[in-house]
Amino acid sequence: MTYRSDFASRHIGPNQYQIQTMLLELGYKDLDTFIKAVVPENIHIKGEIEKVLPAGISEVAAIEEIAQIAKKNTVVKSFIGNGYYGTITPPVVLRNVLENPGWYTAYTPYQPEISQGRLEAVFAFQTAITDLTGLAIANASMLDEATAAAEAMTLARRVWQGSDEAAFLIDVNLHSHVKAVIKTRAKPLKIKVIENDLGKDLIPEGIFAAIIAYPDSYGRVKDLTNIVKDIQKQSALAIVSCDLLALTLFKSPGEYGADIAVGSAQRFGVPVGFGGPHAGFMAVKNGLERSLPGRLVGQSVDTHGNPAFRLALQTREQHIRRDKATSNICTAQVLLAVISAFYAMWHGPDGLAEIALRVQKFAYRFRGSLKKSGFDVDDYEIFDTIFLRSSKAEQITKTALAADFNIRMISKGELSVSFDETTTEADLLKLLKAFEAEDASEKSVNSVIKRGTTYLSHPLFNTYHSETAMLRYIRSLSDRDLALDRTMIPLGSCTMKLNATSEMIPVTWPEFNLIHPFAPANQSEGYMQLIDSLSKWLIAVTGYDAVSLQPNAGSQGEFAGLLAIRNYLDSRGEENRDICLIPSSAHGTNAASAVMAGMKVFVIACDEDGNVSLSDLKEKIEEHRNNLAALMVTYPSTHGVFESAISQICELVHDAGGQVYVDGANLNALVGVAKPGKFGADVSHLNLHKTFCIPHGGGGPGVGPVIARAHLAPFLPNHPDNDLAGPKTGPGPVSGAPFGSASILPISWMYIRMMGGFGLTKATEVAILSANYLAKKIDPLFPILYRGQNGHIAHECIIDIRPLTKSTGVTVDDIAKRLMDHGFHAPTVSFPVAGTMMIEPTESEDIRELDRFLAAMESIRSEIAQIESGKITIEDSPLRHAPHTIGDLVSQEWDRKYSRENAAFPNGQEFGIGRAGKYLPTVGRIDGVYGDRNLVCSCLPIEELASN
Question: Ranges for the Glycine dehydrogenase C-terminal domain (predicted)?
Answer without folding.
Answer: 763-884
